[in-house]
Design a protein that fits this description.
- Helices cover about 5% and strands about 50% of the residues.
- The radius of gyration is 18 Å and the shape is flat.
- It is built from 1 helix and 12 strands.
- The longest helix has 10 residues.
- The protein has about 190 residues and is mainly beta.
Length: about 190
């Protein structure tokens, strides 16, 4: 089996995309997994109707529940337009990988899957972080960091499932290894 280090290349015998390994410039910190035990959570099923701007609609729903973190899934539906980013090499030795310029899709876009993290910045502003896979009207598969504030629901309603934590949140803090701002589990009052 031939393994490739080039983005998008496939292995010779399996046809699957090869695994890419990213080495960041900063000092690795282990263990990378941070953990916080949360009290029982609330689960929500949200249906957003055609034409709805996703980011603002989710923020209106979340405002009813106070400052919390959460996770969720895009379970199905379509979009009319969206923007997404993919990780690219930068040539900067201090931050060798970063999100590239946005890819813009319009037309009939069908969601395959999506993972949402609900966090907040130091000022308490809600942050919606989503990685998603979707298919355009020509049948081409796309995926990456989906900017939920750019998504407009298409002809089919968008179904989301969210799990909101009690007394805990994901708060943005800088990360020494990646030089990114990452969401860290944090206890809340």
């Amino acid at each position: 089996m031939k393994l490739s280090s080039q983005p998008g290349e496939t292995t010779a015998s399996t046809g699957f995309l090869a695994v890419r390994k990213f080495l960041h410039a900063g000092q690795p910190s282990y263990p990378r997994t941070l953990d916080l035990e949360a009290d029982p959570a609330e689960e929500l099923r949200i249906t957003l109707q055609p034409g709805t701007p996703v980011g603002p609609a989710l923020r209106r729903v979340l405002a009813r529940y106070g400052q919390r973190g959460g996770v969720g899934r895009l379970c199905g539906g379509t979009a009319r337009r969206l923007h997404y980013h993919r990780i690219e090499q930068t040539g900067d030795p201090d931050r060798p990988y970063d999100y590239g310029p946005p890819h813009v899709l319009e037309g009939v876009i069908s969601f395959v899957t999506g993972a949402i993290t609900i966090g907040q910045n130091a000022d308490g502003k809600v942050l919606l972080h989503c990685h998603s896979g979707f298919i355009d009207g020509d049948g081409t598969l796309h995926g990456g960091h989906l900017l939920l504030d750019t998504v407009e629901v298409g002809d089919d309603p968008l179904i989301l499932r969210l799990c909101l934590f009690s007394r805990s949140a994901f708060v943005v803090n800088s990360d020494e290894e990646t030089h990114f701002s990452l969401l860290h589990p944090t206890p809340m009052e």
